[in-house]
Specification:
alpha+beta; Glutaredoxin; four-stranded mixed sheet; two-stranded antiparallel sheet; 9 helices
């Protein structure tokens, strides 16, 4: 696109900070008047690539992976819920909520990118997982969400059975890790500068304004 800023977002659908970061970035784009001038592409990263098909209960997962206490888990969830409210996104944490495997979701997101519906699909998947208590590792749920954004359901389900598509996702994940990405969201502007983590809106605005001065 002419006079367009390319923004690559390396993310995982299971990462709450990824939707927070994206919504802050979108707010910054709106407040800087850059709607239609920012081309966003999402790239796969799995924060739990070895997560088994049955998933893992959220509190147990956080305690095991990060050593967090139950009180720290409650504080984390409350913090994210408040941040979501500020961004008009509902985080609905509940007893028994699971961390799930996101490999299939990433396969669909790669397919959706080819169809021009990647951002629409990832927003639906974030909402399904964090707001609607849906298991986005469940292929029936993935089929429903893909259909909701206008993707061809037969092609979607065929893609999930496509070994080459699965390998492409793994190769892309390996590429970003080799580029030094170790946490998400990582937002890369014009393939030159990168920010890791959900940055404040004002910081995104500053970066956008600096990079679009010459567009």
């Amino acid at each position: 696109m002419k006079n367009t800023l390319k923004v690559d977002i390396v993310s995982d659908v299971a990462c709450p900070w990824c939707i927070v970061g994206y919504l802050r970035l979108q707010q910054a784009i709106t407040e800087t008047g850059l709607q239609g001038r920012v081309d966003i592409e999402w790239h796969p990263f799995e924060i739990n690539p070895d997560m088994p098909p049955e998933g893992e209960e959220l509190n147990a997962h956080i305690a095991r992976k990060y050593g967090s206490t139950p009180e720290e888990c409650r504080h984390f969830r409350a913090q994210l819920t408040q941040l979501g409210t500020e961004l008009s996104f509902a985080f609905d944490y509940y007893d028994g909520m699971k961390v799930v495997n996101t490999r299939d979701a990433h396969i669909l997101l790669e397919y959706a990118q080819e169809q021009g519906k990647q951002t629409a699909l990832i927003q639906r998947l974030f909402a399904a997982l964090f707001s609607e208590r849906k298991d986005i590792s469940n292929r029936q749920i993935l089929e429903q969400e893909a259909a909701s954004v206008g993707l061809n359901v037969d092609e979607v389900m065929a893609e999930l059975e496509n070994a080459a598509a699965r390998q492409r996702v793994q190769d892309k994940e390996a590429f970003w890790i080799n580029q030094g990405v170790s946490g998400v969201p990582t937002v890369i502007f014009n393939q030159t500068s990168a920010l890791t983590g959900a940055q404040p809106v004002e910081f995104y605005k500053q970066v956008l304004e600096e990079l679009t001065n010459d567009l």
